Amino acid sequence: MTQPTRSTSGLAAILASILVLTSQSACSTRPESPEKGVVPAPQTPTTEPAGFQYPTQAYHDRTDNIRDPEFVSLHVDEISSFDVVILGLKKVFTPEGADFVAQLRSRNPDIIVLGVQQVLGRHDAWNRADLRPEYPMAAEMYDLLSPHLLYQMSGEPAMMWETNQMIDPTDGSGDLDRDLLREYVDIIARHAQDYPTAIDGIMHDYMSPSPWLYPDGSVEGTTADVDLDGDGIGSTEDDDDRRLWTAWQKELMREFQDRFGEGFINVANGALGIRDEEAASLMAGILYQHFPRTPWGYTDLEGLEMAFDHAQDRLTPRRGRVWSILDAETGRRAGDVEFRRVASLLTGLPYVWRLGQWREFFGREDLDMDLGAPIGEATRERLENGGVRYERVFENGIAAAEFDEAGIQQGLTVQSR
Ligand SMILES: [Ca+2]
Ligand SMILES: [Ca+2]
Q: What SS3 string covers 344-369?
């Protein structure tokens, strides 16, 4: 495992060479900067939640529904029956959002709550006059990040999305900006102190192996790229730039783990955890958006095998298990819900039936299915026609998925035995 770029300048480097602490969760020792952890965070429980029902479901709703009294009174009971709940971080760090989570936990002490935070950009909306008082954490984040925005080599803003400008994670001299990193986590730690049971972990949104300009960032007559280490070579040609970009994401996960404790659940979407083994080892789970194909167009089989691979090998379990999630797609294709459901049975990972939308409630998928506990892991069998069959046996039944040679699903089976 290679260590990401870190500052070698001044007092910090001298102290870092002396203060080598052994991390219990990482597979190597690494230096700790003495100024870290200015704001202590509430310690996340380490206990394993009670066993999941199979298939297991996650509730994913980043809207303001959870702060709407009518929505909450109507649906809090059903939402509390999920194993995992994914909500906007800035929303759970409000009195109403934290109260919603408290209501979930009073009904289901084993529920896991992940707060979504976009960790590589600064959203315009965080500064909207009407929203600043509503979401104080987002307003503080806007103010912190505004002097640290990223620009293309042409001078144009480096946009991650239409209203989301990328941040520059460097200190301007080719190193990661560790003060910025610490202050970033300080803000979240401070709000977590105010609402100490609001989250069990963070879903790091927009994680990526390299800066990703939206839509392609080009302005007529310019090259759409960014140069993080300032050597005049853009990130598409420069490993150093990409290393700085991913170092920010990896160090954020390390910092959250250090502050919130070994039970803290770092989950991330995007390609970083899929393609970068070191990043995956810092995660407890990957949110597979648009499962199984993801935005990169995997086949059904590739998507499923990726979920297996990461569940078994690369991630670091927290609280007794990995926390990858088979998330819903935005453009729905016939059969996708059924595929996620069977994939959940095969992998043991929670799936999202439908994404929450403002004032529209998609609760637990109502299933007439009682397979009981799994008996062992899924098996993989090569079929005579060149395809593949996955099967998993449960106390009361069998779940199976078959794929053709091209990796396209050919049949899903859930039957009693
Ligand atoms: Ca460069
Ligand atoms: Ca370089």
A: HHHHCCCECCCCCECCECCCCCCCCC
- DSSP H or E stretch at residue 326: strand 325-326
Mean pLDDT of 12-23: 40
pLDDT over threshold 90, residue 26: no
Question: Could you read off the pLDDT of 174-212 as tens digits, one per residue?
Answer: 999 999 999 999 999 999 999 999 999 999 999 999 998
What's the full length of the chain, in residues?
A: 417
Q: How far is the CA of 171 from the centre of ligand 2 (A)?
A: 15
The whole-angstrom distance between residue 79's C-alpha and the CA centroid of its chain comes to 20
What span, in angstroms and rounded, lies between the C-alpha atoms of 56 and 344?
7
Angle at the Cα of 166 from the Cα atoms of 161 and 167, rounded to 5 degrees:
160
DSSP secondary structure letter of residue 223:
-
Question: Residue 124 and residue 357: Cα distance in Å, rounded?
Answer: 21
What is the CA(416)–ligand 1 centre distance, in A? Answer: 58
